[in-house]
Design goal:
It is a single chain. α1 packs antiparallel against α2. The mean pLDDT is about 95. This protein is of the alpha+beta class and about 130 residues long. It folds into two domains: about 80 residues, Sandwich (ATP Synthase, domain 1), CATH 2.60.15.10; about 45 residues. It has two helices and nine strands; from the N terminus they run βββββββββαα.
Length: about 130
């Protein structure tokens, strides 16, 4: 078992002392953290994040963040995070549409911001729709 904390600037979303695994995405791809993992600090990207407790998988959206593993303590500090059941799918679909439309003819600086907005919207959509398929 490992102690998993997922926090944002304004709240602790997960404080689970008996997590069995964590699965999320970094800038270089998907990865899984298991108990007794080697120490690690990694930058994460917007993703569907999954963790297990008592054999039950729990699903949430996490935005960009920093994940630190030290012994059996995992701290995930994310810019934003939401449980799957709290995500407003219609809002995420609108955000995707708005970002795609705004990208047309956007400056390089604005395009970078819009691509981040798009990545967050797509990750939220994947979190809801991917979980519905299971």
């Amino acid at each position: 078992m490992m102690h998993l904390k997922i926090v944002t600037v304004d709240r602790v979303l997960v404080d689970e002392p008996h997590a069995e695994r964590l699965f999320t995405k970094s800038e270089v791809g998907e990865f899984e953290i298991l108990p007794n993992h080697a120490p690690l600090i990694v930058l994460t990207r917007p993703a569907t994040t999954r963790y297990a407790v008592g054999g039950q998988e729990r699903i949430l959206f996490t935005a960009r963040g920093v994940l630190r593993v030290l012994s059996d303590e995992v701290l995930f500090i994310a810019d934003a995070a939401e449980r799957k059941e709290d995500i407003d799918l219609s809002r995420a679909l609108r955000a995707k549409k708005d970002a795609l439309e705004a990208l047309q003819g956007a400056s390089k600086t604005r395009a970078a911001e819009l691509k981040e907005d798009l990545a967050r919207a797509l990750a939220r959509i994947e979190t809801v729709q991917g979980a519905q398929k299971k």
